[in-house]
Amino acid sequence: MGTPLESRDAQVAEVLDRLYDEYPDAAISLNYTNRLELLVAVVLSAQCTDERVNEVTADLFEKYTSAADYAAADEEELADDIYGITFHNNKAGYLKSMGETLVAEHDGEVPDTMTELTDLSGVGRKTANVVLQHGHDVVEGIVVDTHVQRLSRRLGLTTEETPERIEADLMDVVPESDWQQLTHLLISHGRAVCDARNPDCGECVLEDICPSSKRDSAVDLASGEAWT
C-alpha cells in the first residue's frame, strides 16, 4: 500500500490511466456561453466554489452581456450583484477594470494570448490558462488550482510548492496531450475522494501507489505535516 512507482514518468502515466477510467466525463464545472462569460466566471472562482459562482452568474450574465457593460458599471452596484462571492468588493473592481481594458485595447473581445490575458485586472496565469484552453482551444500550460496543487504533491508527481513551479514541473513530465485533462481529473478526484482535511483513502483508486496514503504514511506530502 502507498508505494509509488519507480519513476515519475511511470507514476504520472498510472495516475492518468486510473483517473481517466474513474472520471471519464471530467470537465470544467463553470457555466458559460461565450469567452467573456468564461473569463468573468474564472475570475470570480478564485477562492470560491464553482457551485457558488454558477449561482451568482446566472443573473449576472443576463445583466452584463458585454465588456462595455462591465466598463460602464457602477462598482458598488457591481459588488452587490456578485455579493456572496469571496472578496466580492475586490472582484467588482477587477471586473470593471477588466471591462475597461477589453474595450480600450481589444475592441471588447477576450484576447487569445497569455501576455494579453495576464495584463487584465484579476487575471493570473491560472485564469489565463483556463480561458485559453476553454475559450480559444489553446493549450500552453497546466491549470494549477488548489486541488491540482494538493493532489500533485500528495501523489508524488512533484515536490514543488508554488503553483507556478508546480505547473512548470508537471509540464516536464505530463504528456502535452494530457495537460488540459489532468486538471479536470485531479479536481474531480479531489472533490470526490481526496479532500484537503480528510481524504477517504479507503475508497481511493490510487491508494496503493500514493506515498501520502493515510494507511501507511505518517505525513501528508501536500502540506508536509503529520496526518491528524
From TrEMBL:
Q: Which cofactor does it need?
A: [4Fe-4S] cluster
- Domain HhH-GPD stretches: 44-192
Q: Do the record's keywords include Ion transport?
A: no
Q: Name one Pfam family in it.
A: HHH
> What's the Enzyme Commission number for this chain?
4.2.99.18
Record CDD domains:
ENDO3c
Quote one Gene Ontology molecular function term.
class I DNA-(apurinic or apyrimidinic site) endonuclease activity
Q: One GO BP annotation here? A: DNA repair
Instruction: Recite the UniProt cofactor note for this protein.
Output: Binds 1 [4Fe-4S] cluster.
Q: Where does [4Fe-4S] cluster bind?
A: 194, 201, 204, 210
Which keywords are on file for this protein? 4Fe-4S, DNA damage, DNA repair, DNA-binding, Endonuclease, Glycosidase, Hydrolase, Iron, Iron-sulfur, Lyase, Metal-binding, Nuclease
Gene3D superfamilies found in the cross-reference section? Helix-hairpin-Helix base-excision DNA repair enzymes (C-terminal) (1.10.1670.10), Hypothetical protein, domain 2 (1.10.340.30)
From the UniProt record, list the reaction(s) this protein catalyses. Hydrolyzes mismatched double-stranded DNA and polynucleotides, releasing free thymine; 2'-deoxyribonucleotide-(2'-deoxyribose 5'-phosphate)-2'-deoxyribonucleotide-DNA = a 3'-end 2'-deoxyribonucleotide-(2,3-dehydro-2,3-deoxyribose 5'-phosphate)-DNA + a 5'-end 5'-phospho-2'-deoxyribonucleoside-DNA + H(+)
- Entries under InterPro entries matching the protein: DNA_glycosylase, Endonuclease3_FeS-loop_motif, HhH-GPD_domain, HhH_base_excis_C, HhH_motif, Nth
HAMAP family reported for this sequence: Nth
Q: Which NCBIfam families match?
A: nth (TIGR01083)
Family to which this protein belongs: Belongs to the Nth/MutY family.
Q: What does this protein do, in the record's words?
A: DNA repair enzyme that has both DNA N-glycosylase activity and AP-lyase activity. The DNA N-glycosylase activity releases various damaged pyrimidines from DNA by cleaving the N-glycosidic bond, leaving an AP (apurinic/apyrimidinic) site. The AP-lyase activity cleaves the phosphodiester bond 3' to the AP site by a beta-elimination, leaving a 3'-terminal unsaturated sugar and a product with a terminal 5'-phosphate.
Protein name, as recorded:
Endonuclease III
Organism this protein belongs to: Haloplanus litoreus
Q: Which gene encodes it?
A: nth
